[in-house]
Amino acid sequence: MTAGPATSHWAVENLIARYAELVDDGDFAGLGVLLADATFIGSGEPVSGREAIEKMFRDTLIVYADGTPKTQHVTTNLAIEVDEEAGTATARSYVTVFQALPDLPLQPVACGRYHDRFARGDGRWRFAERRVRITLAGDVSRHLRSAAAPR
What is the pTM of this model? Predict the structure, then answer.
């Protein structure tokens, strides 16, 4: 397959999808690797570097006996712009986070937007920055440690 705008668009889209898979699998080490070259900007202070990003997810998300947060991140409305000459790309998308537990019916617990920047180096695309802005929140007490009641 030759490199070009379509290939780059596909590679960026796959990075966005991979992020959702890793969060939903509870693979925080994998998230650290995926975002190792990026800065993650959410509700707290910006976080950079593999170990710091992995720790931030471990400290933030509640994980259940199966090792997952019992969530499904659905990313939609992707708008990806690639600058082949510069080796950069940007993406905007919506995210809806669903959660279900034995005593919690399936429901959306958060909705928001991702604003991402990507850079190509050594022949592959990587996250350079992920900005997460949650615009609607439901019951996140079973998803986020800071929202959970003391145990």
Answer: 0.93
